[in-house]
Amino acid sequence: MTLEIPEVVINRLPVYARALAALALDGETVVSSQTLGERLDVTPAQIRKDLSYFGRFGKQGRGYNVLGLLAKLREILGLDRKWRVCLVGLGRLGQAIAEYGGFEPQGFQIVAIFDSDPASVGKLVNAVHVHDSAELDSFLRQNPVDIGIVAVPAHAAQQVVDRLVNAGIRAILNYAPMTPHVARDVAVRNIDPVLAMQSMTFYIKKAEPSGK
Amino acid sequence: MTLEIPEVVINRLPVYARALAALALDGETVVSSQTLGERLDVTPAQIRKDLSYFGRFGKQGRGYNVLGLLAKLREILGLDRKWRVCLVGLGRLGQAIAEYGGFEPQGFQIVAIFDSDPASVGKLVNAVHVHDSAELDSFLRQNPVDIGIVAVPAHAAQQVVDRLVNAGIRAILNYAPMTPHVARDVAVRNIDPVLAMQSMTFYIKKAEPSGK
DNA sequence: GTCGCTCCGTTACGGATTTCACAAAGGTGA
DNA sequence: TCACCTTTGTGAAATCCGTAACGGAGCGAC
Hints:
The first copy, chain A, is an alpha/beta fold. Chain A has helices spanning 7-25, 33-40, 44-52, 66-77, 92-99, 136-142, 154-166, 193-204; strands at residues 30-31, 58-59, 63-65, 83-88, 108-115, 124-125, 128-132, 147-150, 171-174, 187-190.
């Protein structure tokens, strides 16, 4: 019935939404797929096709109402509500994530932090309580959480992922440098700047001698 | 002649390399596409196909020599040398990046940091000197840098990207929440955990009422 | 040496995704 | 109202990518 929507399309929608929010701040009220596409390095046809999976949001001859389309996208993506997030791992990376101010304003609220280091347990980080990792399962049973952020060393990550999934979490943002194994109905996104770097070097290695 | 290699393939190679390095640490000397594929949630055929773009590295009936293939991949990707990186932006995020220990061991050496806040300029962060952003262009003219990391606010990011590209940098790791505009021969990778979150919510919004 | 099993490299196929191109619709101005 | 310009939504075509399948090579056992 609901014709399957390609994941690549879903991944682009937040990019569109972000651009629309920026346009709205600039005071733009209407935007065409052409203009939006130039801003995002995407072809106008792709934008129109992506949107057409979900409905007809534009006006021929005019374009899209910026705020209207933004609201639609937010609704489609489920961004019209708050999401409860937990963070596992409070090493260097975990601390940076805990103190990162970018999630909260977008509706992603870190409601609990877990770490296995007794020195951290009990502290407050960015006004969030740090629990012992051992309590992860019991905590999640009592406090529903939607999304888990994994920021533990690679060797511990699969176990953490398993525990999150077993506790019912179906979305995981993974910062550990490994590929987590999860059931098909669990969404995973990996953040790994090193991998990103390592794929770019392929393209610049050819011509760039850089230093002697 | 050198038959164009799809970017998706290039993006997977570092993942393979990472897995091979892990296998090597486990003492494995040989691995089949089957085994590697299970570890990475990739079909064996895809691994073989990807590798076949670059040569014949396996032995029929045996598989791939772990260290041998790893060395090959590192060579293909240009990871068999050090890369000089500069970081622009020393806010919260920039500081976390500067202190992140994951780049150095992979051969990505941050050789300079730039920030526009006079309070930061002149400091040492993780043993790297912090320069005034105004010096960016002159610094790069004298000290070749291969890769730029952008960690400035979105509204300043395009300008920073332009300056980096004008200075000859052809690879950019962008942490700013915007889509940079660059010439076709410049590689860009965007790191945006919020976008990652926002695409996952689409999949979990349906069935998960979470809190009442 | 032969059998049997494993597993690579490659080609062919099919599915997924992107791009093209056009009919139809909204808007403007005379 | 009509002519003209813009831009959408969408089927069809083209391209890109992943998977299946298979011939043949390596290895071990007997």
